[in-house]
Design brief:
Strand order of the largest sheet: 1-2-3-6-4-5
Structural class: alpha+beta
Low-confidence stretches: none
Number of domains: 1
Radius of gyration: 19 Å
Number of strands: 18
CATH class: Alpha Beta
Largest sheet: 6 strands, mixed
Number of helices: 6
Strand content: 25-35%
Distance between the termini: 5 Å
Helix content: 10-25%
CATH topology: 60s Ribosomal Protein L30, Chain: A
Order of helices and strands: EEEHEHEEEEEHEHEEEEEHEHEE
Amino acid sequence: MMDRSFVWPDGHWDWPEHLAYQHGVRAGEMIFVGGQVDKDAAGERLNPYDLAAQTATVVGHIDTVLKGFGAGLAAVTKLVAFYVNDGSVDEHAFLADVGRHVIALGGAPGGVGPAITAVPLPWLAYPEMLVEIEAIAMLGADGAALERSAANPSILAPLPAPFSQGLRCGEHIWVSGQSARTPSGDIEDAGDILAQTKLAMAGITRVLDEFGADFDDAIKFNIWFNGDGTRATWQDAAVLRASHFTEPGPGATALPTPNLPAGEMTRMELWAMRGVDGAYIPREYAWPEGSWDWPVPMPYKMGVKCRDIVVVGGQVALDRHGAVLSPGDLVAQTKRTMEYIGAVLAEFGLGFDDMVKQNGFYAGTAGREVIVPVQVQRSSYYTEPAGAATGVPLPYLALEGLMTEIEIIAMTR
């Protein structure tokens, strides 16, 4: 049996309403830290509109949560940095600032830093909030550091220190967000989502190659694209991406992100698992009866189990023909989406309390009146203490009337 442990550091920030989630959860060697923000124990935002100050605090919060497990930033394998960018923020400089704090707090042992994906957005959950960062870390059962290796193909645009284009720890491989940037930092084929999709997928391929892995090893695929909430902006690129996978494929989440840098149309990240001996790891798949489906055929599965990890790809309130259910109703769609998640977990003999990480994306602006009702509703499905969580607002999702997309990582016990 794989025991769970949870961390809520003394005096750590809280939500303004009571939720079941914890700031960190550990199961076996895996540690998941929910999206960290600059707030106080009463849920009040600190350092309003100050990206640099919030970044320093948030990286420190991740370290604090990890130290509750006897770890620290040295154990981090993957970061996702959601941040507000209206076009005035230099993303490379922002990532360099994140990296500076990671190094200062003892991250990236031996210069081998985690994979990272930056996700620029028009706003976060509250107007004053400019950055939210979540983390995955790994630590040996005896508290010992685990061996890791990095991949940084020279043909890819370099990331600021100490981050890696790809990081491997044990059987796990994380590929940082790939785009159409050249080593000089320029964006190739500006404005052309199909050409950029090919380049980003090629970048993922190069990183996987260095670890002796390929797309068949993927368990989770995340896509961010410059869309406008209509099918026309993503369908052709989705078909192109899908052609790289053999069915049954990984879990997947695709979200429109109109605040990508000028000319950039897409970026993608991937989580794969490959045996340390180089062998393929068998996996199980789930597609429950009565599940929704995409409007166009895709190779991805609703759920994927590999070893102790169960990934539930982004679930949405669609029917089996790809039509939106309860258009425009965020609360109703949240309920339906959580029901879909429950059905996927049940296929593996699991339930909501096996969740270790939840990401909830929802259509809406910044403000308590938007986020609180869905936070409370999502939280109600779990027994306290629950796993870690991140909630991110978007101006719209992939289809007109679609209001939320929720993804889950669970672990067997």
